[in-house]
């Protein structure tokens, strides 16, 4: 799939009920699932970043990021858990609400956390409805292969758009034997393609693939009509997503192979905090200009 940067989706403009929005050049006023599909159809790509609060959501939104993911990675990046498993639906509602308040243009997608959907399609619908009704997200993301097609169908029928998530699924790390690349070995393309197609047929508007060999992900993208999103899945997907703390270098330590760091915020923020502390200890802050006169 080749990118065509010069092509842009038609804008979305308000229109009265029964009327058509006028067509003009430029990006949409608000990104929706139809615009992601249009990107796939026209051979364009889109960017996706995680967000967990209003301030960073507003920054990413202003920078033009098309999709913001309120990931259950909030468990690692914000709440300090060793995995995503402890994250609750109540917590996802809280963080999703903040992101929705900060974003005016991006499509906001929220993860269904572990334990909120697996038991039945009805449980999945209840969780998805909460995230849309209480937090205001536009869609949810759900981990799982074709065995969860019934859940996707039920959510879609209830009016909850679903981004499917296959390949490495962090909520299943104990079943998968840890953080391991998926989709390798004989028949891998057929297995991954079958999963993606089943989820597409069930109503998923997109399929995210995590830690999948590049050739397998490209084959899956070519086999489905809906857009695909990659994280550690090579360049052949329609969209790419990263955890923002990894991408901007806020988190230190060993990075996954698929992460590209565009800044080193950990160093920048550390230097600033040390400078603040030094000013306080030596008495140079606050200076006269930082105070008020009586």
Q: Could you please describe the fold and organization of this structure?
A:
This protein is an alpha/beta fold. The protein has eleven helices and eight strands. The protein has helices spanning 33-41, 54-62, 74-77, 89-102, 121-135, 149-157, 173-176, 188-202, 214-223, 244-247, 265-282; strands at residues 46-50, 67-70, 107-111, 139-143, 162-167, 206-210, 228-231, 239-242. Strands 1-2-3-4-5-6-7-8 form an eight-stranded parallel beta barrel, surrounded by seven helices. β6, α9 (214-223) and β7 (228-231) form a beta-alpha-beta unit. α4 runs parallel beside α5 and α5 packs across α6 (149-157). The longest helix is centred in the last third of the chain and has 18 residues, at 265-282. It starts with 32 loop residues before the first helix and ends in a 12-residue tail after the last helix. The relative contact order is 0.11. The model is unreliable at 1-24 (pLDDT under 50).
Q: How large a portion of the residues is in β-strands, by DSSP E?
A: 5-15%
Low-pLDDT segments, ≥5 res = 1-24
Return the string of H and E elements: HEHEHHEHEHEHHEHEEHH
Regarding quaternary structure, what we see is single chain
Topology:
Blueprint: H1 33-41, E1 46-50, H2 54-62, E2 67-70, H3 74-77, H4 89-102, E3 107-111, H5 121-135, E4 139-143, H6 149-157, E5 162-167, H7 173-176, H8 188-202, E6 206-210, H9 214-223, E7 228-231, E8 239-242, H10 244-247, H11 265-282
Helix pairs in contact: 2-4, 4-5, 5-6, 6-8, 8-9
What are the salient characteristics of this protein?
294 residues; alpha/beta; 8-stranded parallel barrel; 11 helices; 8 strands; globular; disordered N terminus
